[in-house]
Write a structure and sequence with these properties.
CATH architecture: 2-Layer Sandwich
Order of helices and strands: EHEEE
Distance between the termini: 47 Å
Radius of gyration: 17 Å
Oligomer: single chain
Number of helices: 1
CATH topology: Macrophage Migration Inhibitory Factor
Length: 67
């Protein structure tokens, strides 16, 4: 029973989430034979100030690498 968790920044519409969920569910069916009612998808919105990449807040300019 596949569970797909998607964490991303806020701002997608319900229609966009629905379309993505539909396509992911279809892909699981086509690739591994999962029945649609066995595929679960969770969308989790994370605020930009709670998301860090390379030690920096998301959206912050990256510092040049030290040489």
């Amino acid at each position: 029973m596949p569970l797909v968790q998607i964490r991303w920044f806020p701002g997608r519409s319900a229609a966009q989430k629905q379309e993505l969920a539909t396509r992911i569910t279809q892909a699981f069916g086509e690739v591994v034979g999962s029945a649609p009612d066995h595929v679960s998808i969770i969308f989790e919105e994370v605020a930009r100030d709670d998301w860090y990449e390379a030690g920096q807040a998301a959206g912050a300019p990256l510092k040049p690498a030290s040489q």
